[in-house]
Amino acid sequence: MTTSKHGDLFSPLCPTRQLLDRIGTKWTSMTVKVLAEAAPDEVRFAELRRRIPGISQKMLSVTLQNLVRDGLITRRVEPTVPPRVHYRLTALGLSLEVPLGALRTWAEQHMSTIERHNRRADELSQEPAEPR
Q: CB within 8 A of 6, min separation 6: which ones?
């Protein structure tokens, strides 16, 4: 049972914190993006793996299991040899694409500024200290 502590990000019971714990990985957001682009069609495991650069088979499997568990995607297995496994976003999963899209837009607008700050901080940390 989840008890809510709205607005207190420091509480493990905060809904925002709980959600970020579940979806706050790059693999989750990429998986949701690929499935959203395919919606309402299903996407097979192998196609997901091809469309998400750098993800391992194990990490994709774990990510998909978590998304199924949370009700964000459905999983359908064809009883073939080997089995064919298909995934699709649920209505709940599709609704997640909007806030994730907003986050991608924010990142595209601001990452160059953040990288500029990082470079400047790195330069400052490498400057020799002034003698006293």
A: 14, 15
Q: Looking at the chain, how many residues does it have?
A: 132
Torsion of CA 63, 64, 65, 66, to 10 degrees: 50
pLDDT tens, position by position, 28-59: 999 999 999 999 999 999 999 999 999 999 99
Q: Check if the beta carbon of residue 31 is closer than 8 Å to that of residue 60.
A: yes
Domain count, the chain: 1
CATH of the domain at 115: 1.10.10.10
The alpha carbon dihedral of 59, 60, 65, 69 has a sign of positive
Say if pTM beats, i.e. exceeds, 0.85. no
Give the three-class secondary structure for 76.
Answer: strand
Place of tokens 């809904």: 15
3-class secondary-structure state, position 3: coil
CA Rg value for the chain: 20
Tell me whether residue 4 is in a domain: no
